[in-house]
Amino acid sequence: MRVILFTGKGGVGKTSVAAATALRSAELGYRTIILSTDVAHSLSDSFDVPLGNEPRLIAPNLWGQETELSQTLETQWGSIQRYLSALLAWRGIDEMVAEEIAILPGMEELANLLYIVRYQDE
């Protein structure tokens, strides 16, 4: 399994380069999934195919996915976040504040990286 991450400032072409790379990889016969964590959801536009929080077949050997932050956090961290929220609320912190505090810094990125682990295991 090979993981290629495309990072950089907004508007530099990360999505376009990632889409072209994924398409070529699939054309070469490699099972390929392209995963976007960008809230703009421009990957759907690149392939002209609606994508969501679960992988969708775009072309032979090519699947695409655009993560939804709220669903990703619920899927990957829901039970932990609920526990932390309940613990903080039990200690007297306002319920709404407790829910916000329970989202730890970097949690979104880590939750999205867990998709890579999931796909490696499949």
UniProtKB/TrEMBL annotation:
Under Gene Ontology molecular function, one entry of this record is: ATP binding
The UniProt entry, under InterPro entries, shows: ArsA/GET3_ATPase-like (IPR025723), ATPase_ArsA/GET3 (IPR016300), P-loop_NTPase (IPR027417)
Residue limits of the ArsA/GET3 Anion-transporting ATPase-like domain? 1-121
Q: Which Pfam families does the UniProt entry name for this protein?
A: ArsA_ATPase (PF02374)
The entry assigns this protein to a family as follows: Belongs to the arsA ATPase family.
Instruction: Please identify the protein, giving its name as recorded.
Output: ArsA/GET3 Anion-transporting ATPase-like domain-containing protein
